[in-house]
Design goal:
Length: 161
């Protein structure tokens, strides 16, 4: 009703148009910066992906096939903590790390089944943690003993802490 009584001042419309234009330009600049950042991240991810040797993917597949052959999947069938794509990775990792350390993968999987039922966030009443129920001082000693960051790393807590 006020619009009917008073016509807007042309000077106000020009100020509003200038403000709206400046805001649109600022939003466009920010979008362009975000797009450039995303493009750089994509290029970085692609270069890291190219750096992954094909041999490691083939080895991962061979380790998974070995895990299936020796029946690790049967030990993990009751586990509700490891799902989807994590399950084959865990099975292949058990085979790979067991072989690398001179252990029988079935024995390692059996220890994990008994100790934590394949729950990576399991904590015992005395404070032992993880798949193989290590005590924190033992885990710390292992971290200090092995300086390679890719080999042993503490688990990050997601939603199950």
């Amino acid at each position: 009703m006020l619009g009917l009584l008073k016509q807007p001042d042309p000077g106000d419309q020009l100020d509003q148009f200038a403000f709206t234009t400046a805001a649109a330009v600022q939003v466009a600049r920010e979008a362009q910066e975000r797009a450039a950042t995303a493009q750089a991240q994509l290029q970085d991810a692609r270069s890291r992906l190219r750096a992954v040797p094909v041999a490691s993917a083939a080895q991962e597949l061979a380790d998974l096939q070995e895990a299936e052959r020796i029946g690790l999947g049967r030990l993990m069938k009751d586990s509700t903590a490891i799902w989807g794509e994590e399950r084959p990775r865990v099975m292949a990792t058990i085979v790979r790390e067991s072989r690398r350390n001179g252990l029988d993968p079935a024995l390692v999987a059996a220890v994990i089944q008994v100790e934590s039922h394949f729950d990576p966030f399991a904590v015992s009443s005395v404070g032992a943690r993880g798949l193989m129920q290590l005590m924190p001082p033992t885990a710390q000693w292992l971290l200090e003993k092995d300086s390679s960051p890719a080999r042993i790393r503490p688990a990050t807590c997601s939603t199950r802490c």
